[in-house]
Amino acid sequence: MKKILVIDDTDFIREDIATTLQFEGYETMTAEDGLAGIEMAKSERPDLILCDVSMPRMDGFGALEQIRKTDGIRTVPFIFLTAKAEKADMRRGMELGANDYLTKPFTTDELINAVNTQFAKEEDIKEKIGREVGIMVDKLGANISYALPHEFRTPLTGIISSTDMIDMLANDAKNGRGVDYTELESIAHDIRISAERLRHLTENFLVFTQLQSIASKPNDIALLRKLMTEGGILGMVEDIFNMQATDLERTSDLVISVEDSEISMDSKDVYKIIQEVASNALKFSKPGSPITVSGRVDGSTYHLVVNDKGCGIKETDIPNLGVPFFQSDRLSNEQQGAGLGMAIVKKLLEIYNGTITIQSVLNQETTVIVSIPTATPLSERL
């Protein structure tokens, strides 16, 4: 039997909703405000949460934000109950991870339809995830069984929620109400971000699979080690870090001082390494904190050093970085990936006879040192 948690500070509304859902065959539980609702959700692990927006002690937005950060309940479908039909409030809720809105007063049919729709969407998402990663989950164990479903679910939920909002705006237009085109642009941006997250996950999985195959073929490795970057490393470092920082409005946080050099590695593989290292530095540090990027040649080795003043890494977790689907302190860090980025970096460096060194102080900083063989000068290759 599906369990539904109803959070509302008005007694008769809370009990009426619970009773209605019970008649529909659902098990229900209630809480009078956001704080009580969070504790109830932690202990009872509901399958769906219906939550009022305006409440004492903690409002619905605060409750949703905490729930999305709490292990075990972070992915529970969440429907807001609000007397306000303002799109700004709805937008804020969607950004925090709400799945739907019900505007008071609502009918019994509207309530039941909203609940049933969310359960139907959840089953659809689970089916999609199962088709894509079911076999993989069985083979790779606990880390992947959490990481990949989470990584697929989050952007899929974002895309579905955004399309729901487009439907709502289309209905407004159909009924002669004005449509805010800046809101449409914002929704399109959210869809693009979610789609990019899915694309990045898919590409990383394919890249890692290819690298696993190459790593077992000495002849392929020998051929790759004869390649070199075209145009040196400086331009790639500046382009990648600035591009990613621009997307996050953090260009002012970057301090880049990189010596140029040709690298004994295919340009696309150098690009991939820099891309993943840059992504981690930006992902796990806060806006306004500096990210320092330096690079220098030492004999026949190029050292790229990236330092961020972010959340840091537990000392016991550092040896596991680079293990596929492993994530350091995943439950505390929301902006996690599937754990494939560092695995790809490590595998690429192994193939090209390079190394990666990670130094970190928890809650203070992390320094990543990528060491790659420099290319043999042209005069020595002739």
Plain-language structure description:
With 382 residues, the protein is of the alpha/beta class. It folds into two domains: 3-201, Rossmann fold (3-Layer(aba) Sandwich); 217-381, 2-Layer Sandwich (Heat Shock Protein 90). The chain contains twelve helices and ten strands. The protein has helices spanning 11-23, 34-44, 60-67, 87-96, 108-140, 142-174, 181-215, 218-224, 234-247, 267-283, 341-351, 378-381; strands at residues 3-7, 27-31, 48-52, 78-82, 100-103, 254-258, 291-298, 301-308, 355-361, 365-373. The strands form two sheets. The chain has a five-stranded parallel β-sheet, with helices on both faces. Strands 6-7-8-10-9 form a five-stranded mixed β-sheet, with helices on one face. Helix 10 (267-283) links the parallel strand 6 (254-258) and strand 7 (291-298). Helix 10 packs antiparallel against helix 11 (341-351). The longest helix has 35 residues, at 181-215. Mean pLDDT is 84; it is low at 135-146.
How would you sum up the global shape? elongated
Taking all residues together, what is the mean pLDDT? 84
Largest sheet: spatial strand order: 2-1-3-4-5
Provide the number of structural domains: 2
- Provide a count of the helices: 12
SSE pattern, N- to C-terminal: EHEHEHEHEHHHHHEHEEHEEH
Name given to the CATH homologous superfamily of the largest domain? Response regulator
Roughly what fraction of the amino acids lie in strands? 15-25%
Question: Low-confidence runs (pLDDT<50, min 5 residues)?
Answer: 135-146
- CA radius of gyration: 25 Å
Task: Determine the CATH topology of the largest domain.
Answer: Rossmann fold
Number of strands: 10
Per CATH, the architecture of the largest domain is: 3-Layer(aba) Sandwich
Helix content: 40-55%
For the record, give the distance between the C-alpha atoms at the N and C termini, rounded to a whole number: 74 Å
Structural class: alpha/beta
The biggest beta sheet is recorded as: 5 strands, parallel
CATH class of the largest domain: Alpha Beta
